[in-house]
From TrEMBL:
Protein name: Amidase signature domain
Domain Amidase: residue ranges: 34-431
Record-linked InterPro entries: Amidase_dom, AS_sf
Organism: Dillenia turbinata
Length: 495
């Protein structure tokens, strides 16, 4: 059958990178037309969903350049990568040296000028990706106040879950997940310090991959805590997440953590682990307590069926495991996580602001003052800024912070690491996103994929977590499960 030659037949609904790449190759699609389709979708849906803060005024120019390069490669016989000519949305905490803002969702940084692209953005550009725009997020990664809801920021308002308007949109990479779920873009980048990729991916029925801390550079990203921050993809399929990871992972002299973590990157990259038989022989630790309690009653049977699918596909399940001191790990005030993060946030934010070429604010104290001076703009009266104020009161990295970090390391050692090593596991399996703190405090990787929908149509995910550097095993397990179940469905057309 001859391929169709006109682009009007191409649809962006649930399209994958492979679909896009094939359409490019068969001349059924140009990057310019793809950008146009996504911008029309954004214009249609974003007024309701509020997943995108701004679109890149240079997106069409970048697409035209990609189309030109593709034609040149046809004559030269050179292959282009999976992301070439593909639009990508970036969480608003990831810096771009262009006409767009980088604000963490706050008006306080509107108009600030960064010195350079974030390293992950440099790598996307080198791969030929089109930077489509900035995705909304929980303002300041929700490290402004616990009173602030997931998915809210001053610049964008409240992000809306496309599956159920009353449901949680997740955070803090809410806009990245909403936009991918609603087919306003195929792939996006988020950041995760503790749940910020895993939670919104679960809530919006998409794939979220949180790499081992340091596997991807954080240079040029507005920080929460460099001890836990990680940049990763949010997509609709495991394969697409892996293709993005292959582009953005690697050593960066601007981020010291990448020096050690880059040693985990396998020769040949991560695509080779997209193995449909990847569950065979894998030892999976099933941890239900207390995470199953957070699922709706109508979702529990689906999770139990998934365990049987894992068995049927050749995995060895070590069932009903428990993580030592898990209740402490899930409480940031008891684990020491908040104590450490309060000091780390102030130090990191102040360092980031100092590096800006120009900015209305130059310190955390300036941000607090801006919020006080603009209470209606930033909804300070409704949501407050208690975490920021507490962070500003810290005095560097003292004895309390060192004790807190030591406790976090000990909790990880006697909890997650003992569980994994003592049972010789390839991955831990948990329902939903609530295990993200267990993984976040130790800098461990995780991947969460769609696992079903409750009686109200609200999505939930299944999370696979592993020890540092275990991305190959996690990818194999997640991809094989995804291919066996193919659960994800697009959101209802209620907008």
């Amino acid at each position: 059958m001859e391929p169709k030659n006109h682009q009007n037949d191409f649809t962006i609904e649930e399209v994958t990178l492979e679909d896009i790449h094939l359409a490019f190759t068969e001349r059924r699609l140009t990057s310019r037309h793809l950008v146009d389709l996504y911008l029309k979708q954004i214009n249609s849906l974003n007024p309701v969903l509020r997943g995108v803060l701004e679109v890149n005024p240079d997106a069409y120019d970048q697409a035209d350049q990609a189309d030109k390069e593709r034609e040149e490669c046809r004559t030269g016989g050179r292959e282009l990568g999976r992301l070439h000519g593909v639009p990508v949305l970036l969480k608003d905490g990831i810096a771009t040296k262009d006409k767009m803002n980088t604000t963490a969702g706050s008006y306080a940084l509107l108009g600030s000028e960064v010195a350079r692209d974030a390293t992950v953005v440099e790598r996307l550009r080198r791969a030929g990706a089109v930077i489509l725009g900035k995705a909304s997020m929980s303002e300041w990664y929700r490290f402004r106040s616990f009173e602030m809801p997931n998915g809210w920021c001053a610049r964008g308002g409240q992000g809306v879950n496309p599956y159920n308007k009353e449901a949680d949109s997740g955070g803090s990479s809410s806009g990245s997940a909403i936009s991918v779920a609603a087919n306003m873009v195929a792939v996006s980048l988020g950041t995760d310090s503790d749940r910020s990729i895993i939670c919104p991916a679960s809530c919006n029925s998409v794939v979220g991959l949180k790499p081992t801390v340091g596997l991807t550079s954080r240079a040029g990203c507005i920080p929460v805590t460099l001890r836990q921050d990680s940049v990763g993809p949010i997509t609709r399929t495991v394969a697409d997440a892996v293709h993005v990871l292959d582009v953005i992972a690697g050593f960066d002299p601007r981020d010291e953590a990448t020096r050690e973590a880059s040693k985990f990157i396998p020769a040949g990259g991560y695509e080779q682990f997209l193995n449909v038989d990847g569950l065979k022989g894998k030892r999976l630790g099933i941890v239900k307590k207390p995470f199953l309690d957070f699922l709706s009653e109508s979702s529990v049977p689906s999770f139990e069926l998934h365990l049987q699918t894992l068995r049927d596909r050749g995995a060895v399940l070590v069932d009903d495991l428990e993580i030592a001191e898990v209740d402490i790990m899930l409480n940031p005030h008891h684990s020491g996580e908040i104590t450490a993060m309060l000091a780390e946030f102030k130090l990191g934010i102040n360092d980031y602001l100092k590096e800006l070429v120009s900015s209305p604010v130059r310190s955390l104290a300036d941000i607090i003052a801006f919020n006080n001076e603009n209470p209606d703009l930033e909804k300070t009266k409704e949501y407050g800024q208690d975490l920021m104020i507490a962070s500003e009161k810290t005095r560097g990295y003292g004895e309390d912070e060192r004790k807190a970090v030591a406790q976090l390391e000990e909790l990880s050692r006697i909890g997650f690491e003992k569980l994994m090593k003592g049972n010789e596991l390839d991955a831990m399996v948990t329902p939903g996103w609530r295990a993200s703190s267990v993984l976040g405090i130790g800098g461990y990787p995780a991947i969460i994929i769609p696992a079903g929908y409750d009686n109200d149509g609200i999505p939930f995910g299944i999370c696979f977590g592993g020890l540092k550097g275990s991305e190959p095993k996690l990818i194999e397990v997640a991809f094989a499960f995804e291919q066996a179940t193919r659960i994800r469905r697009p959101p209802p057309k209620f907008v």
